[in-house]
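2024-03-11 09:14:02 INFO queue: dequeued item CopG family transcriptional regulator, len=154
2024-03-11 09:14:02 INFO validating residues
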Amino acid sequence: MSRTRLNLFIEPEHARRLDQLAAMKGVSKSSIVAVALTSWLSPDAGDQREAAIAKRLDRLSRQFEKLERDQTILIEALALYVRYVLTVSTPVPEAHQEAARAQGRARYAQFVEQLGRHLMRGHSLIKDVHEEIQPDPDAFVAGADAGDAAGEAS
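2024-03-11 09:14:37 INFO prediction written
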């Protein structure tokens, strides 16, 4: 295949990046430029870029919708909890309100500290609770085996 020699002027930063890429990939700078030109001049290149962008946007949209759904669930759960607490809490007598406020501030500070420690460890309370209440599948197998053995002994 014959080639045409071109003398091009490019920005120094582009030249540096081209040198790095050629060294990293172990190919010539000419081959990198040829591939880039082929991609740029290809009639399908725009369609391929558009398809790739559309695919990524679709994925981001799905992730955003999931986050939005999860946030809505959390807000509703918090609202239900707050309504429950406010419903079952007895009013604090006027004489005890200052002490109750002080205790509330102390409890809130303790809550924030505990939340900070929990987040620093990278744990999820929901995951921890789910693991606590999730039955161990092996326990069912062991229980079934024991039940079978008891049934066979009768």
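2024-03-11 09:14:37 INFO annotate: The chain has a mean pLDDT of 86.
2024-03-11 09:14:38 INFO item closed
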